[in-house]
Design goal:
By secondary structure, the chain is of the alpha/beta class. 44% of the residues lie in helices and 13% in strands. It has one domain: Glycosidases (TIM Barrel, Alpha-Beta Barrel). It has 17 helices and 15 strands. The strands form 4 sheets. A 9-stranded parallel sheet has the order 1-10-12-2-3-4-5-8-9. Strand 6 and strand 7 form a beta hairpin. The longest helix is centred in the middle third of the chain and has 29 residues. The radius of gyration is 21 Å and the shape is globular. This is Beta-glucosidase. InterPro entries: GH, Glyco_hydro_1. Belongs to the glycosyl hydrolase 1 family.
Amino acid sequence: MKPFSQFFVFVVTVSATSYIDAFTRNDFPNDFLFEAATSAYQWEGAFDEDGKSPSVWDTTSHCDSGSNNGDIACDGYHKYKEDVMLMAEMGLESFRFSISWSRLIPNGRGRINPKGLLFYKNLIKELRSHGIEPQVTLYHYDLPQSLEDEYGGWINRKIIEDFTAFADVCFREFGEDVKLWTTINEATLFAIGSYGDGMRYGHCPPMNYSTANVCTETYIAGHNMLLAHSSASNLYKLKYKTKQRGSVGLSIYAYGLSPYTDSKDDEIATERAEAFLFGWMLKPLVVGDYPDIMKRTLGSRLPVFSEEESKQVKGSSDFVGVFDAVPWGLEGILQHIKQSYNNPPIYILENGKPMKHGSTLQDTPRAEFIQAYIGAVHNAITNGSDTRGYFVWSMIDLYELIGGYMTSYGMYYVNFSDPGRKRSPKLSASWYTGFLNGTIDVASQDTIQLQRKCSGSSSL
């Protein structure tokens, strides 16, 4: 079994817990990265400016009238310099963002949009000028609408060639300044959410599918994602890695599971769930094929790798992203990876606490949530895990793909009623800043004192 050279742990969660031991920023390795994340459709806005064409999320969000869409979002396209300055003031070492395929290559293939290219070059330049490393996701669900219309997007193998060509442009144009690339964000959940729930994005109203199509197309889409990822990754290794020295990986959906009881049936059920939720994407990246239990259960509904495809997919990820739900579950996953995969480097790409948008600037539950997860990471490192980074979702309030503007994850509040999209720091931003610059000691009363200090500015 070929081990991964890097693993990225991708975490989005909705449940906080008190999981706090004594630790400070100085208890982490000097090169450990504390970071934050966004995605193009949720952050940029400017949905039809400077040559950008519609994505499937533009189409879907416009099905209903009103402003519950990402047309403006928090206007990162125009306010990126302000946001980078806020990141620098917080002390972030890295920023994860995605590239809008339909902004960079409006037709999905062919001509590059010079204004889209300039925006991403300027963003990357601005980040690096403030000492912040860019971490880029190539695909965060916003497929160009033209490709969905032409051949159905991810259920058609034509997507492999088009995605690889898109990745090639990104590697060529940005690769000198980007060392960490994620090909597809949370591929497993994307396949389930876009194809397995009976609804297809990019259609208005979203397309309704029969049960038979749902049960088949979910796995076809996932299969094509693996082939597109491996095609792009292998291209990078052959064409760019020697000079650029970056890493390319895939983000998948998985979380820690344990049997409900100690019965044999529950043990078997847990192993089956792990195979479908975790092994579906991970095992092909390790051994070049799907878990045996998936093949037995799904039969002809599960696509088959050719011998050449199996070789291409196996070992194609320098890192992998993993979705988890609670701190103890995160520790369990880190322990499993340490024991099963020769303790590779791990980065937690995304971790956030949802709250009602606009409720308060004193978001104590979010600060406690971040604190709990950093504590879980610290415990895992103490127990020998080679975890090297942690990304908070999100740096500022965004348009959330599920909650729209009703739910927020940001450490900075954005007034979406203000044409200027004014940003205001929440308690969580102050806590994260204090933790990063060493003025917050988790074991002390510093957090309580910070809450008192911020209490006078809790209203919006």
